[in-house]
Write a structure and sequence with these properties.
The protein has helices at 18-31, 38-45, 50-61, 69-84, 91-97, 110-119, 123-126, 146-154, 169-178, 195-202, 214-221, and strands at residues 5-8, 102-106, 130-132, 162-166, 181-185, 206-208. The protein is an alpha/beta fold and 227 residues long. The protein has a 6-stranded parallel β-sheet.
Length: 227
């Protein structure tokens, strides 16, 4: 079935921000007395909102977060992203060759998306089609499928005609639940051993590590049936 739309996750797919977030979270959690490596944060929590991460750590380890923790985490991460985040290699070349309509569907806020996309010169390549899950439609974040269904609705495109590129298990699960065709991406600095297998198990039909391969995958999917 030919594809009509491509929806991208942002963090870890278009911009190499997941590793920055993991390092920031690891440092802040250490101050609370909880030791965790950035790599473990990437494996366990990539694709989740900060609020959900805090909920899980509270339930699993009894962590007590100060009232100002979420705001402090937001400020510190935003500052680091403004100074450090880079585009995933090949993203502009890929977009130059991609002919289908495209949009971003992310768990990040619009404010944060603007920070990373403007720094990497990607904001103008997507706006106004930059959708923050917590701010559009039902406002349910991934792993709920809602933001991907919302993206499809904006272009009046059926999910089965939509390709999603995702780097996290939670994001792949969201896109698959929406009924989209899903490609896993393991080209970010936060990738880990077993990453590709985890994305496949979550519902990705194939996995790539180079963004420049996306246009070729779009062409190939026209002849593939989901298995």
């Amino acid at each position: 079935m030919p594809l009509s739309l491509v929806l991208f996750d942002c963090d870890g797919v278009l911009v190499d921000s997941e590793i920055v977030a993991s390092r920031t979270d690891a440092a802040l959690l250490k101050e609370l007395g909880y030791e965790i490596d950035p790599e473990e944060i990437s494996v366990r929590f990539s694709g989740l909102t900060q609020e959900r991460i805090m909920e899980l750590l509270t339930a699993e380890h009894g962590l007590r977060f100060p009232d100002d923790y979420r705001e402090r985490q937001r400020r510190e991460l935003d500052d680091r992203l403004r100074a450090e985040v880079e585009a995933i290699p090949g993203v502009h070349e890929m977009l130059d060759k991609l002919e289908l309509p495209r949009a971003i569907c992310s768990n990040s806020s619009t404010d944060r998306l603007r920070i990373v996309l403007e720094r990497t010169k990607l904001w103008d390549r997507f706006r106004p089609y930059v959708f923050a899950a917590g701010e559009v439609g039902t406002k349910r974040t991934k792993p709920a499928p809602d933001v991907y269904l919302f993206g499809c609705e904006q272009f009046e495109t059926a999910p089965r005609e939509t390709l999603v590129l995702e780097d996290s298990v939670h994001g792949v699960a969201a896109a698959a639940a929406a009924g989209c065709r899903v490609v896993g991406f393991v080209g970010g600095s936060h990738t880990y051993p077993g990453h590709a297998d985890a994305l496949t198990e979550a519902g990705a039909e194939t996995v790539i590590r180079r963004l420049v391969d996306v246009p070729g995958v779009v062409d190939a999917f026209a002849g593939w049936e989901n298995v």
